[in-house]
Amino acid sequence: MEHHDTRRYPEPLAIEARGLVKDFDGFRAVDGIDFSVPTGSIYGVLGPNGSGKTTTINMLATISKPTAGCAKVFGYDTQTQAHIVRQLIGLTGQFASIDESLSAQENLMLFGRLLGLSAAEAKKRAADLLEEFALTTVAKRPIAKFSGGMRRRLDLAVSLISQPPLIFLDEPTTGLDPRTRIQMWETIERLVSKGATVLLTTQYLDEADHLADKVMVLDRGKVVADGTPDELKASVGSASVQLSLEAASDFAAAAQILERVLAVQVMTVDASTLRASTPGTHKVIDALLALGEAGIPIAEINVQKPTLDEVFFALTGKAPEGERAEGDNGDSAGGAGKPGSASGAGSWGGMGKPRTAAHAAEVSKVAHADKRVKGERS
Predict the structure, then answer these.
(1) In 3D, which of 46, 12, 40, 11 has the Cα closest to residue 213?
(2) E strand or H helix that includes residue 245
(3) What is 237-305's CATH topology?
(4) How is 291-329 classified by DSSP, letter by letter?
(5) Check: CATH 3.40.50.1980 for 13-232?
(6) CA end-to-end span of the chain, whole Å?
(7) I need a surface site. Which of 11, 91, 111, 150 has the fewest CB within 10 A?
(8) 215 φ/ψ sector (left φ>0, alpha ψ -120 to 50, else beta)
(9) Is residue 241 a contact partner of residue 318, using CB atoms and an 8 Å limit?
(10) Is the pTM of this model over 0.70?
(11) What is the residue extent of each domain of the chain?
């Protein structure tokens, strides 16, 4: 007989966090955050590297104890009732938890047995998950021969062995090609359609926009905004304008004109392209007239609804960059970013290169905090 969780959950909220704080040697990685996640929803947590995303997940998943504050999962306290919380959650971290020496089928059966399933139940559950994640044809192949996308799908499958009602996905599509990312999106949507709740951290803006019912933006351990993607985009204006200049040498002058006319900060897209939010298309016309009067020719213009890029830029003054570390530098499970990591369009720029001595010191503290938590988890 297949194992099913028959427990009745006492509260409609899947997650309720109040005043969560996490300190590491005087560095505050998470600074008094409050949020709640309704059952059956996808909740996105966005922010640059070092913002506290993974640290927050680790506290909710009972991996790390809060310095202050409290959190509940389906009404159960993550500190005093951690043994119950662990039965209700599945966690897919930034790095695979699978055993390289085993096949996909063997990994799934092993985790099933560890979670209390009988041999027959573990075998059936493994077969179901291998089919769900399109891994049946490679079920007996050594993990060492798996591609990155196959490993990521298997890692998510492992976290679903016990059919948990709450799933934590910490940057689940990092490093995946576009096709595999879309397949993962479809899998996540299927999980929720079957009644699961998902808390998703991501650095991909389109991922949050596509999947999340509600989004929380973290910066330096604090909540700087929360709401639906449409609510957050509406908060920075009714339109977004992107201008490509014919001459890159006009960039500085064009940026000054746009900031003066639109009364907003301008985001750099590339050497000759600027983007800015605006309260309405009438302001875009004013800006174009001003650029024309200054003799600045425009190669291309695009006006659209604001994106989450503009939201984050407006809230923090930091724009997404092309290059991104694979890990989440200050978030405890992810570790420091690796040099030479892949870039991704539409990803959070992270803490970026140190801009000042104080910023360099902050980056150093974040890396130290990460090492501390790795020790705490061992």
Answers:
(1) 40
(2) strand 239-245
(3) Alpha-Beta Plaits (3.30.70)
(4) HHHTT--EEEEEEE---HHHHHHHHHS----SB--SS-T
(5) no
(6) 35
(7) 11
(8) beta
(9) no
(10) no
(11) 13-232, 237-305
